[in-house]
Design goal:
Layout lengths: L1 H22 L42 H27 L2
The structure holds zinc ion (ZN).
Zinc ion binds next to loops.
């Protein structure tokens, strides 16, 4: 039950972090390529980076800030590791 409890706590923390990222009003960052960081401020009509060729799915992807990306990564990491721990806890009886 220890692993299940720990897994549930991590999933809960991940959900809270994900909710915070979605609900918090982050100011948009400079328009940059997600792949290489190329400054795309002058390329308002294009979603494709001329430097590395990576295409953004939508315009909002180009203005994500590093802080947003860190919190998204944390949320995914916490939820994923919580899920793994929970499954291990159920399988092993811990
Ligand atoms: Zn690029």
């Amino acid at each position: 039950m220890v692993l299940v409890t720990l897994g549930a706590a991590l999933i809960g923390a991940g959900c809270v972090a994900a909710l915070a990222v979605w609900t918090e009003d982050f100011p948009p960052g400079p328009r940059r390529c997600v792949g290489c960081g190329y400054d795309m401020a002058a390329l308002l009509e294009s979603l494709r980076c001329p430097e590395c060729g990576r295409a953004a799915v939508h315009d909002g992807e180009l203005v994500y800030t590093a802080r947003q990306m860190r919190w998204r990564l944390r949320a995914a990491l916490w939820c994923g590791s919580g899920l793994v721990l929970g499954v291990l806890g159920v399988l092993t009886g811990w």
